[in-house]
Amino acid sequence: MITGAFLHRRSQPAQTEGPWEMPLTQVALSVGGDSRRRLGKRPLPHIDHALRVAHRGRRPLPLSGSLTFSQGWLGLEFPALPAILPGDMFQLQPVPRTSLLAAMTLSIVLFAACASTEPPATPPNFLFISVDDLNDWIEPLGGHPQARTPNLSRLAAEGINFSRNYAVSPACNPSRTALLTGLHTYTTGMYSNYQYWREVLPETVTLPKYLSQNGYWSAGAGKIFHNNMPDPVSWDAYFPSKQRHMPNYFYPRPGDTVNMPSFEGMYVDFDWTPINLSDEDTGDFQSVDWVIRQLARPHETPFFLACGIYRPHLPWYVPQKYFDMFPLESVQLPRVLEGDLDDLGERSRDIASRGGDYHRHVLSAGQWKQAVQGYLASIAFADSMVGRLLDALEASPHADNTVVVLWSDHGWQLGEKQHWRKFALWDNVLRTVLMIKVPKGTPGLLEGTRGGGRTERITSLIDIFPTLLELAGLPQKEGLDGRSLVGLLRDPEAEWDHPAISTYDFSEYSVRTQDWRYVRYIDGSEELYDHRRDPEEWHNLADDPAYADAKRELSSAIPKNPAPLVETSYPLLPHHIAPYSSREDYESRKRQQQ
Ligand SMILES: [Ca+2]
Ligand SMILES: [Ca+2]
Question: Distance from the CA of 313 to the center of ligand 1, in angstroms?
Answer without folding.
Answer: 6
